[in-house]
Amino acid sequence: MPDSIDSIKTDAQNINSANTASPVIQALFGGTFDPIHYGHLRPVEALAQLVGLKQVILLPNHVPPHRPQPEATAQQRLEMVRLAVRDNPLFTVDTRELERQSPSYTIETLKSFRQEIGEQHPLAFIIGQDSLQTLHTWYKWEELLDICHLLVCSRPGYQSQLSAPGMQSWLEKHQISSPLPLSQKPHGYIYPATTPLLNISATDIRQRHQQGISCDDLLPPSIQNYIDAQGLYKK
């Protein structure tokens, strides 16, 4: 198995060459972002380098169906997301889920993007290993790969094997080991990426704020300043 520096350079050159000749992948990353933190941002930045993503669209959820309701308001969470990526050209923000009054079902959001970009343009949805483990509980999860690729970021403490019945064989059927095919088809692949393992959670950040513990190493300074100014997560 080649593991030399030359072989790594060759892989990078192949990806760059493929990106030049193929459509740019439109990538989406959704979340409650209550608040957004480095555990969201840094793995996705690493993923973008691995896959050759030019832009990642952040999708703050309005009413997440699988999680407790956010403590910050929709407007506060949106403002934190905008502050976090204000000076980072990789990211842009889409508010369509916040504009809904119904639960934020990923499949419906993906369908709306697919209608906008057409049937042949590569579309990818970014999730973590934790979400992959529970994907079978999502609304109409079986339709996801008919619309997009799944890009999976590593998460500390989660196995790569799926434990739910039938899910491991489903994963193996669609999994790819190189990002190159992602730009060659509009949907249908699962790419597990080796991204930084950051043990950061929004729950921990909220608890730290309640206890008066510093979160300076967990999220951008602009977000910390906003949380303090708004008096968030004090109860």
From TrEMBL:
Q: Which UniProt keywords apply?
A: ATP-binding, NAD, Nucleotide-binding, Nucleotidyltransferase, Pyridine nucleotide biosynthesis, Transferase
Is the keyword Transit peptide assigned to this protein? no
Does the entry feature the keyword Transferase, yes or no?
yes
Q: Which SUPFAM superfamilies match?
A: Nucleotidylyl transferase (SSF52374)
Catalytic activity, per the record?
A: nicotinate beta-D-ribonucleotide + ATP + H(+) = deamido-NAD(+) + diphosphate
Share an example GO biological-process annotation for this protein.
NAD+ biosynthetic process
Q: Annotated Gene Ontology MF terms?
A: ATP binding; nicotinate-nucleotide adenylyltransferase activity
- Domain Cytidyltransferase-like: residue ranges: 28-208
Q: Which domain of life is it from?
A: Bacteria
Annotated EC = 2.7.7.18
UniProt cross-references to Gene3D superfamilies, sorted A to Z:
HUPs
The top EC class, named as a word, is transferase
Q: What does this protein do?
A: Catalyzes the reversible adenylation of nicotinate mononucleotide (NaMN) to nicotinic acid adenine dinucleotide (NaAD).
Kindly provide the name given to this protein in its UniProt entry. Answer: Probable nicotinate-nucleotide adenylyltransferase
Q: What organism, scientifically named, is this protein from?
A: Xenorhabdus doucetiae
